[in-house]
Amino acid sequence: MPELPEVETVKKALAPWLTGRKVRRAGRVDAPEGPKYRGLERAAGQRIEAVTRLGKFIVMPLSGGDELVVHLGMTGVLTGEEPRDHVRVLVELEGRSQSRLWFRDPRRFGRFVCLGPGEREHLPTLARIGPEPLSDAFAVGAFAAALGKTRVAVKAALLGQRVVAGVGNIYADEALFRARIHPETPSSALARGRVAKLHAAIREVLSEAVADGGTTLRDYRQVDGSRGEHAERLMVYGRDGAPCPVCGRALVRTVIGQRGTTFCAHCQRR
Ligand SMILES: [Zn+2]
Q1: Which of 83, 155, 180, 266 is deepest in the core (most CB within 10 A)?
Q2: CATH of 4-127, one of 3.40.50.150, 3.20.190.10, 3.30.559.30, 3.50.30.50
Q3: At 226, is the pLDDT very low, low, confident or very high (cuts 50, 70, 90)?
Q4: Ligand 1 centroid vs 247 CA: distance in angstroms?
C-alpha cells in the first residue's frame, strides 16, 4: 500500500501539471455510487489551487472552497494516460494539453472525493491525522507524549496515523529495525531515549524512500508509470527468513494489529 514516500512522489509529479488548472468536469467512471467517490460533480468550474499531501492523502484545495481528496488505497494509481480498465474517476481539465487525470483502482480500496468546508469528518483518518514526520511539526517531545498515552504495541501506534502521519507497514518495520525496538513493545513503555531513536529512524527511512521515488512491490507506480526504486534497499520488510543485515540471524515474522510484521528477535529487544 502506498505510504508517505509513494504519495509524496505522486504529489510532486501532479503539482506542476495540475496547479492552476480549472476543472471542467469530474465524476465516477466504472464505479458504484457511494462514499468513496462522493461529491465529485462539485469540483466542476473550480480551479485547483495547489496539490498538497497530508499523511497518505493527496489534498487539492479548490478555488470555490472545496477540496479534492485522494487516498490511493492498495492499488490506486493516478495517471495522465488513459488506462485500459478499472478506471474509477476521471477529472477533465480546461485547456488542450494534458487535460485528463485518471484514477485507476482495480481493488477499489482507494478513495477520490470532493469535500466541502468542514467535511473532513467523512474521512476520520484525515480529520484526526497526526504531524507530518518530515516537517518541524514532528517533535520528539510531542511524539514521546503521544506514545506515552497508549499501551498498544508501538508498531500498531505507528500505523494508526494519530501519533505520526504517513507511516504504513513497510516504513514502520524499517524504522523499528533501525531504532532496534521490538515492534510489540507497549508504546508507553518506551524510554525517552528510545523514542528519540525511533523519531530519527522514521525521518531517515522516509527521506531515503522519498529520494528513491518510493517503494514498488506490486501495484504502486509513479505518475509516469515508472517504479519506485526503494524496494532493494529495504532491510527487513518482506524479508522474513532472510539473514538480518546486522547480526545475520534469520528475520522472523509475526502479526500485529492484523498486519504482517518482520523483525530481528536478536537486534530488536523489548
Ligand atoms: Zn539482527
Answers
A1: 155
A2: 3.20.190.10
A3: very high
A4: 4
